[in-house]
Amino acid sequence: MSHTLLVADDEPNIVISLEYLMKREGYHVLVAANGDEALETIVRERPDLVLLDVMMPGKSGFEVCQAVREDAALEGVRILMLTAKGRDTDISKGLALGADAYMTKPFSTRELVQKVSEMLAAPR
Description:
The protein is of the alpha/beta class.
């Protein structure tokens, strides 16, 4: 069974790259261009993992993460924050709001693929 991922980022080039990369790895990929769309898609589709940018129009990635963690029906959704905001305070905030992991841009695609695989293999 293929896992479903949501790529939520407002930068089209990043979305296209991540969508291609994850599809090549055999995942079913959904995309969202802003925080509001990301949250609607998460509620509707219940992806296994969300690759979530922090800085997006509408709701920020932090707000989306917090909303997902406050909804008991979305308990199984894993969140990997992908962002250029790499200060310790940003990472701490993301993890405190319930992100399962945090990677800063730019990141190696090999590391990202490995991290996604690890997160999906871990028991929830």
